């Protein structure tokens, strides 16, 4: 009986972990968010899904902003800003499917190609997290750092908030596991 309970608990934990998995992408890999980074090459072969997180590591003379498509196309660093970060280490959770646009806060860097456009796909394994409550802020991962700090692997699983849908899915898994395990 105790062994059955352990198997059931393991099934529930595994079910929760599978519904809450995301990928943490270090933008630019070891080069970071830098004018020397080839961001078009960096994003090739990557599939971005709801729940993934983009991590931007950059020097103190730079910043990053999530912007509208129009601001992306024109490198407008004053209008159309949805969220921004300027502490050297900023994270942006990808909370909804669609096109996401990021530019350097330095207009000359942006005009030089320091901008990123990613298309985010719906993640059928996890419910989307709610959108940020207020524009103009980003999630900070730590104190300011240089791009040479520890590089975060692009395949590190992290747990993200999945919303009410993930909670319902987890509860359904718990009930199904209880029925299977305890008859």
Describe this protein's structure.
With 183 residues, the chain is of the alpha+beta class. The chain has helices at 2-19, 39-43, 69-74, 107-111, 163-182; strands at 21-26, 48-49, 53-57, 64-67, 81-85, 89-93, 98-104, 115-121, 139-140, 157-159. It has a 5-stranded mixed sheet with strand order 9-6-3-1-10. It has a 5-stranded mixed sheet with strand order 2-8-7-4-5. The chain is elongated. It starts with a helix and ends with a helix.
In which range does the helix fraction lie? 25-40%
Shape: elongated
Oligomer: single chain
Number of helices: 5
Give me the Rg, rounded: 19 Å
Q: What distance separates the N and C termini? A: 12 Å
Structural class: alpha+beta
Low-confidence stretches: 6-18, 133-169
Strand content: 25-35%
Largest sheet: 5 strands, mixed
Nearest-integer average pLDDT: 74
Q: Strand sequence of the main sheet, in spatial order?
A: 9-6-3-1-10
Domain Phytocyanin: 23-122
InterPro entries: Cupredoxin (IPR008972), Phytocyanin-like (IPR039391), Phytocyanin_dom (IPR003245)
Biased composition (Low complexity): 137-150
Protein name: Phytocyanin domain-containing protein
Write the layout of secondary structure elements.
Blueprint: H1 2-19, E1 21-26, H2 39-43, E2 48-49, E3 53-57, E4 64-67, H3 69-74, E5 81-85, E6 89-93, E7 98-104, H4 107-111, E8 115-121, E9 139-140, E10 157-159, H5 163-182
Parallel strand pairs: 1-3, 2-8
Antiparallel strand pairs: 1-10, 3-6, 4-5, 4-7, 6-9, 7-8
Helix pairs in contact: 1-5
